[in-house]
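User: Here's a chain of 387 residues. Predict its fold as tokens.
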Amino acid sequence: MNYIKSLLLLSILVLAACNNSKTEEATLEMASEENNSGIIHLSKAQFENAKMEVGQLTEKPFAETVQTSGMIDVPPQSRAVISAFAGGYIKNTPLLVGNKVSKGQRLVTLENPEFITMQQNYLETAEQLSYLKSEFERQKIMFDEKITSQKSFLKAESEYKSNLARYNSLKKNLEMLNINPASVQAGNIVSAVNIYSPIDGNVTQVFVNTGTYVSPADKIMEIMNTDHIHLELKVFEKDLLQLKKKQEILFTVPEASKEVFKGEVHLVGTSIDPNNRTSLVHGHIDEKDEQNFTAGMFVEAQIVTGTSDQWALPENAVVEMEGKHYVLKIENETADEFEILPVEVKIGATYNGFTVIGKSEKFKPETKFLTKGAFVLLQEEGGGHDH
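Assistant: Prediction complete.
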């Protein structure tokens, strides 16, 4: 306890010096060791110069929560894996991971002699179609007038419809390769095709280099739009009935920051994974925080299911030393000074800037505490920080 008293005293001295270098040397002194009271004497002048504050235990609402974890993700429509509808060699790929792209922007150029063959087949089929259509219409008129046989008419009809199906199939293939059929019919044959982005977003992965051969099953790159980033949380079966839409979510990204971010429950899963007895909860992130994250980040989260009133002090009124927690109780106040006693306490949750203080017969409703002051420097002094 003497170690704690010494650190508290030293911290108050340092804080006062930092706040007012022109103030005379602090007049604090530890109570005599003979009375072994542990009292710290703090002058009113030092209290005011250090901008300290005094407060009392207050009943505050504290969240009742369900603990969970999960990850940051995006909706399926905000993620696109780019591949080709036909095999070919990568002629040009100007983008790198992280590049921003717009819907319809060229991503890569693919080259293959087979593209020329496909266009030639389309041209030939288009030319045949014109002739077969005329022949079919001629045979139909002659059949209606009973000039030709039904066999000749049906043969012309079959050839025309078969060629029409082939024409439409080849036309669709060209459109899927981003080749304009009208341009081909005008005589413009190309050996390379462009692949365009289906969404706005950022390039997150590139799987090819210039000269790489890709088949229709191969991934070329991945694009992700993080405008609608959200939380995907796994909740245990035993907690599921406590959850409902619009409940507040408090979450952290432990690998990146201790900051607490907010969101809310949007959808609660209706099925249980039989392997781990969990269900998925979909949460929306506050708009002001969305830009802080990227898909794939691991999160730890608390879903607020209700509140209960607890006795609490501002979180800055509690300091941890050597694994124990202390508050500074105002034992006595005179016109000139405060008499302060460090008291070990058991604490509970911290929520909205307040920390739950465990019940103690040492405290009465009117008991006062130092709620702002030496505590911000206490751990620094304990670690030997130089001021």
